[in-house]
Write a structure and sequence with these properties.
heterodimer, A: mainly alpha, MetI-like fold, 2 domains, 15 helices, about 0% strand, B: mainly alpha
């Protein structure tokens, strides 16, 4: 009796998990199918759309890589992402260290303040920022994105790093200072190497957050060759009524899966940082 | 500050005074972050407020203050009123669904089972992949002719034959019919926010002391009673935070609606964020765009204050 119930419970568990996994992953499965399907098979309303009715093809991939700006979008995205990571590290590491070590009263308040700026939405900011970018002569330039993306990576990464630095005992720095390092020297040579996993997490998040960004990129960039993946694929491969579904799905798939895999590796740290922020 | 005190005497050159003085150093290290945020976010926010009471357009970018005319004008527009209604409907419906579903997923993920890492990877995919690209997948799934949902419905005879339950036409036209378009946009939004809510729910469930549940079980409390009297009350604060955070997120996101429907058909999925974009950027009326974007700010600020209070009150984890 109890065994039957256990098997039933297991079955229920797998059904629930399977159902939600299907819900989460199905659009990506759909991209895989469309990427490798022949057009004749893809645009057949009668045949079973879930399987390959004709042998798979690489035509869509070839078209995507050689006949569109997709490779340029990927390069633009990498460049913006790396530059944003560099700025974020330069600004957020000292800020987080400062908050973690001298957080008495004002430090805590400031931390919450930083978290709150995360809640000021891009939908309010993109109109004035678009004027700001054009006043600086940065319209249609990737530099506008490099300048603006740190506004959301810095608050979040500072918050995340603050938690990491708090876990490194103060004694270690004190010892380093007794050994002749200055305060900054101790931070640079002793604390940062110990917090390397925290730094790596921040690199991953600053990069993925800037890769995910959509609204600013859509507002600031309209020249095709300057677009990033997240706006280039949805706006450039859909032209008027002509949907290049095969290459479109191929582009979406190639650009999403690597980020998703990397992100997943760091998900637990992200969760730790996020819940520490939300629940403290 | 004893560490700094000890270090004070050890400076090896004349700069050591600044380098080792905690107070100044702390300020110096945090200043770039504050300046960066203040310059870009603070300044832009003030500028948005100024724009909203001016008559600035992309064609005539001089700032003349004209008062609250823009707000009167946007309120007078029937599309704006529809977008306002849609925004609330869209945000609340998707958030209620997200909270309910994420509780189910989180409860399942609390258990140990084979292949858990794979299940977790798949469930998290909508959050880890760039949202505009994931939404493109959905756009193809809701295609007017080749939608797999239509194919399944046709396969089971629910659609596309005379006398079928959903009508004799071959397709439902998901994104072309007002009610279905809204439903589609909500489904995609639930899909994309479910992983984050699940993560937050997992944190909440993980924070319940195990012995509490075990003690209740020993005392003979039924699973229902344990859920009602232990799990729900103890996770309520963190769930409320997840709900409010998701609400802010939904109020202010335009990616899903922009990629899926661009607010159509006939503005039935238009929300304030997309309307801001179409008016302010594509239409070039920066002043009205700013006014539309600021319209919900009091609501957002209220939610943020509420969240902060809850965070302060509930130091659960």
């Amino acid at each position: 009796m109890s065994r039957a119930r256990k098997i039933l419970g297991r079955g229920g568990l797998y059904t629930v998990i399977g159902g939600f996994a299907l819900f989460g992953a199905f659009p990506f499965y759909w991209m895989v199918i469309a990427t490798f399907k022949r057009d004749h098979d893809l645009f057949n309303p009668v045949a079973n759309p879930f399987i390959f009715n004709e042998p798979p093809t690489l035509d869509h991939l070839r078209l995507l890589i050689f006949d569109t700006h997709f490779v340029t979008y990927v390069m633009n995205t990498l460049w913006v992402g790396l530059a944003v990571v560099a700025i974020t590290l330069l600004v957020a590491v000292p800020a987080a260290y400062s908050l973690a070590r001298w957080a008495r009263g004002w430090g805590e308040t400031l931390g919450i303040g930083i978290f709150l700026t995360y809640l000021v939405p891009p939908t309010i900011l993109f109109i004035p920022l678009s004027r700001f970018a054009s006043a600086l002569g940065l319209q249609e330039s990737l530099w506008s994105l490099i300048l603006i993306y740190p506004t959301f990576t810095i608050p979040f990464c500072t918050w995340l790093l603050m938690g990491f630095f708090k876990t490194i005992p103060k004694d270690i720095e004190e010892q380093a200072m007794i050994d002749g390092h200055s305060r900054l020297g101790a931070m640079f040579w002793v604390v940062l190497p110990l917090g390397i996993s925290g730094l790596l997490t921040v690199v991953v998040f600053a990069f993925t957050l800037s890769m995910h960004e959509f609204i600013y990129a859509l507002t600031f960039i309209s020249v095709s060759a300057k677009k990033t993946v997240s706006i280039g694929v949805p706006t450039e491969l859909v032209r008027g009524d002509v949907f290049q579904w095969g290459p479109l799905m191929a582009g979406a798939l190639i650009a999403s899966i690597p980020v998703a895999v990397v992100y997943t590796f760091f998900l637990d740290r992200f969760i730790a940082g996020f819940t520490m922020g939300a629940v403290k | 500050m004893s560490a700094a005190g000890k270090a004070e005497g050890m400076g090896r050159d004349e700069q050591a005074g600044i380098r080792d003085n905690s107070g100044q150093l702390a300020l110096l290290m945090i200043a770039p972050a504050i300046l960066y945020i203040a310059a870009l976010i603070g300044f832009s926010f003030v500028l948005a407020i100024l724009y909203s009471v001016s008559d600035i357009t992309t064609g005539d970018p001089t700032l003349r203050i004209i008062g609250f005319q823009n707000f009167a004008a946007i309120l007078d527009n029937s599309v704006f009123r529809l977008a306002l209604k849609n925004t609330f409907f869209f945000a609340f419906t998707s958030q209620i669904l997200v909270i309910l579903l994420s509780r189910i997923v989180a409860t399942a993920l609390m258990k140990e089972f084979r292949g858990k890492w794979l299940a977790r990877f798949l469930i998290m995919l909508p959050w880890t992949a760039p949202i505009s690209l994931g939404t493109i997948g959905w756009l193809w799934m809701f295609d007017s002719i080749f939608s797999p949902f239509d194919w399944i419905l046709r396969y089971f005879g629910l659609l596309g034959s005379p006398g079928a339950l959903l009508g004799p036409m071959q397709n439902l036209y998901w994104l072309g019919v007002p009610g279905l378009a809204m439903a589609s946009v909500i489904i995609v939004h639930v899909w994309r926010l479910l992983p984050l809510a699940t993560v937050i729910q997992l944190a909440g469930l993980g924070s319940i002391p195990k012995d509490l549940l075990e003690a209740a079980e020993v005392d003979g409390a039924s699973p229902w009673r344990r859920t009602l009297e232990i799990t729900i009350p103890l996770t309520l604060p963190i769930v409320s935070i997840a709900f409010l955070f998701g609400l802010v997120f939904t109020f202010t996101d335009m990616t899903v609606v922009y990629v899926m429907t661009r607010g159509g058909p006939i503005h039935t999925t238009q929300v304030l964020s997309t309307w801001t974009f179409f008016k302010g950027i594509e239409g070039g009326d920066l002043a009205q765009g700013a006014a539309i974007s600021l319209f919900l700010f009091p609501v957002l600020a209220g939610i943020a204050i509420l969240m902060l209070r809850m965070v302060r009150k509930s130091e659960v984890v």
